[in-house]
Amino acid sequence: MRQTVRVLIIEDQAVLAADAQREIADAFEDSEDIEVQVQVATDFDEGFKRVRKGESDVVVLDVRRDATANTPEDDTAGHAGYLEIKKARFAPIIFWTALPEKVSHEEMPPLVTVVTKEDTEKLPAAIQAAVDSGAMATIGSIEQHVASVLTDHMWSELAPNWTEYTQDADGASIAPVLLSRLARVIDDDRERSLTGRPSFRYVYPPASDRRAPGDILRASDETWWVVLTPACDFAQHKVGLVLLAQASPLEAHAKYVAWRDEYLAEKNKGKAAHNRGKGEWNSLRQDVLTSTRGQFHYLPRFREIPDLVIDFEDVRAVPVARLTEYGPVASLSSPFAESLLVQHSHYRGRIGVPDLDSELIQKRLFADVEDATTRASS
């Protein structure tokens, strides 16, 4: 299915804007994947208003506003407009300017790029890169899904039972109901789409100023810590002391060191790469990297978080007032935060019992089978 992409050029020189419009339209004329609709706004304020109203998918934005009878020249107008757009909505921005130095620090390819006026022919490629990122399609799909969930719940549940939902309150009281419904539906959708990628494991940065289980903190001495106090204690204001577990670099963990040393030793002996360190790797993988039981819990590297291993033996209780000494970096998303608490609970609440004598059991079971076979044949 052909994707429609609305491009808005904000450029106060009409001749230049028309040139860019032709360049873009011609480049996508024969595209089988994208239908590009190019519009022009020669007034900055009008252009910004159209972007805020959602009338464009990609914005080609000049930086300098030329002088008019009523306003002086402004070399920062485009950048100021970009900052306003960021507050209102998401749309990829292509700064198209003779002053690239004014906005080069804002580049975040492929979603924010800078193209000079001398390189107008590069505008189509920048638009293509923004489309190929998938960001616009993803956000559009989510927005439609959110609207659908809210609309359906209003008509199917709230409207028929309006009096009951708004008893002793006004219509605004339905907001928590709608938000709870939306959160549950979105969370179900999110869990169905989870993969093993580290980015799915974290909410980065934390979405709330309040601490919660699974929050990843960095202390002033650069050590890493993870909150283990249950969410209900925070919600019910029962927290006097917050339980934290230290998360240390994976490279310092004994099982990682053993695997690395074995790998390097076998490399020096000329052993094939896929056969190096297999023995110690299995131990590292089972006891640390993929473990959901036992003493250790692995946090994969993402952004500024290094590969870390949580040690449930290395915990401390910190007065809640001292949490300001620990900077929040990220939060574990659901169900990873819940899994962390369950593992910690199992580890701390474990009860040691003697192991069964497996050889004795084996002998008895073998004997039972032999007796049964003998009886059946007699």
Tell me the radius of gyration: 30 Å
Tell me what portion of residues adopts beta-strand conformation.
Answer: 15-25%
Poorly predicted parts:
none
Distance separating the two termini: 74 Å
Q: What is the makeup of the main sheet?
A: 7 strands, antiparallel
Q: Which geometry do the CA atoms define?
A: extended
Please count the beta strands (DSSP E, at least 2 residues each).
12
Give me the number of helical elements. Answer: 12
Average predicted local confidence, pLDDT: 92
Strand arrangement, major sheet: 6-12-7-8-9-11-10
CATH architectural grouping of the largest domain: Roll
Range of helix content: 40-55%
When the domains are counted, the total is: 3
CATH topology of the largest domain: SH3 type barrels
Query: Would you state the CATH class of the largest domain?
Result: Mainly Beta
SS content category: alpha/beta
The string of secondary-structure elements, in order, is EHEHEHEEHHHHEEEHEHHEEEHH
Organism: Citricoccus muralis
InterPro entries: CheY-like_superfamily
Protein name: Response regulator receiver domain-containing protein
Which terms would index this structure?
single chain, Rossmann fold, 378 residues, 3 domains, Response regulator receiver domain-containing protein, CheY-like_superfamily, alpha/beta, SH3 type barrels, 41% helix, 7-stranded antiparallel sheet, 5-stranded parallel sheet, 12 strands
